[in-house]
Amino acid sequence: MTGNRPKIVVTGRIPEPGLDRLRAIGEVWAWSDDQPISIDVRDRELATADAAVTLLTDRVDEAFLDAAPNLRVVANVAVGFNNIDVDACRRRGVIVTNTPGVLTDATADLAMALILMVTRRLGEGERLIRSGTPWQWGMFMMLGTGLQGRRLGIIGMGGIGVALARRARAFGMSIAYHNRSAVSADIAAELEAERLDLDTLLRTCDVVSLNCPYSPETHHLIDARSLASMRRDAVLVNTARGPIVDEAALAMALRDGTIAAAALDVFENEPSVHPDLLGLDNAVLVPHLGSATIETRTAMATLAADNVVAVVSGGSAITPVG
Ligand code: GLV
Q: Percent of the chain having pLDDT more than 90?
């Protein structure tokens, strides 16, 4: 507290509308550099913080919480919260919030874009032109595969999975999914979606998209064994979290033709990318852009800020996790 105004620490750059909401109710200390905040500076500011707004690149662990004895809320500007030790927060009475909903469309758009990019070999095409290699239209040049009549298997059928399914249906794909619980009867009927066990989905789908949260249960869900069970002409798309895929096993499967191609927005050890992937033409690689639109990042920042405002004003969090 500064006077009777709460102190709010923002550990990285976020869009101004989020900061404006926070400044209206408290004293905001915000890291404003593109480089990550140092632990020393972070801990110095956390020492007197009532609230923290964090990014998915922050680790909110026991050390973070030890540095912040007055903390009441951690508002993560992301839908995923695998960067946060939610149990440790709960034990200390710290509320954790995330930003579901507001990034659903942007992330589903990106997943659909990657499906198109990888099946139509757009990365390869870009590289060809930029490399200055002579080329000419050709009947058999850089042929990809169409999506019409193909089956999309979605692992993790939450809001983003459903939004991706709607897009894929518009491209003529049929939908299968694997999820702990079934989607509602209305959504299943709208999408004509078939719920499958994981092995059947992997064995039968043309495109497999990961849209599930990262947790100990989904660590390396896609490993050498599951890749071997996929069709040889299948494509894997990951817009969820990198460590759901064993990246070394994936690189090997792409090199050996165990599966046809992959498109990745997220990586096992971000920002590093497994070096074997870099030289593979059948791997599309983009730098964690799922929610990266101006509108979406602004909505994420304002929702995180609204969560802080709600909690420090004595109300309930809007989108708590756990
Ligand atoms: C992005 O990856 C998010 O979890 O919001």
A: 98
Give me 79's structure tokens.
């839908």
Residue located via tokens 């050890």:
269
Sheet holding 95-97, edge to edge: 27-30, 7-10, 51-54, 73-76, 95-97
- Quick: pLDDT tens for 165-183: 999 999 999 999 999 999 9
Residue where the block lists tokens 């809001």: 159
CB 205 less than 6 A from any atom of ligand 1? no
pLDDT at position 254 is 98
For a pocket test of ligand 1, which of 55, 102, 107, 300 has the largest count of ligand atoms closer than 8 A to its C-beta? Answer: 107
Residue-level pLDDT at 2: 65
Calculate how far, in angstroms, residue 149's C-alpha sits from the geometric centre of ligand 1.
Answer: 30
Please report the domains of the chain, with CATH numbers, ordered by start residue: 7-102+294-312 (3.40.50.720), 104-285 (3.40.50.720)
Compute φ and ψ for 102, nearest 5 degrees: -70, -15
Q: Is the pTM of this model over 0.85?
A: yes
